[in-house]
Amino acid sequence: xxxxxxxxxxxxxxxxxxxxxxxxxxxxxxxxxxxxxxxxxxxxxxxxxxxxxxxxxxxxxxxxxxxxxxxxxxxxxxxxxxxxxxxxxxxxxxxxxxxxxxxxxxxxxxxxxxxxxxxxxxxxxxxxxxxxxxxxxxxxxxxxxxxxxxxxxxxxxxxxxxxxxxxxxxxxxxxxxxxxxxxxxxxxxx
Length: 190
Prior knowledge:
Elements: E1 2-8, E2 15-17, E3 46-48, H1 61-67, H2 79-89, E4 95-104, H3 115-132, H4 135-159, H5 163-173, H6 178-183
Parallel strand pairs: 1-4
Antiparallel strand pairs: 1-2, 3-4
Helix pairs in contact: 2-3, 3-4, 3-5, 4-5
């Protein structure tokens, strides 16, 4: 599977993705190579990468037939990480293709700071851990996510008086599905 070089649609000429580092086992965070840099042609080569970017990718039909499609219950966020983990577990390579360029209108589908985005980012980060982190490391990852990352995020939303985002993060952490998965699925303006 492969992903091209991504530039932001606006502002032009700024790299969003040129490959990625692996996820930190405990924080489940990583870094997109080139992120925020002015594109001067420094990422026009191809090389193996930890993950593709969900905004643009190519996957051979044979891999789809062997591994299957993305897990649709992720819906938004971490779905491509989960898919890459499954594909790499089958021995396939994930590559960045710097010769290709795609312009990405980021967060156009859900907004940059919407309850829908916060819900799925929170829920799916935890769900990714449950599905993909080795069991002997999983408890440390979950301790970090619930004991440090979630409280920090909730405090931030309290200080911003963003009760809608607080509620979304809380519901995501508890895997409460009725409100967000039933009402908000496919809604971009919340």
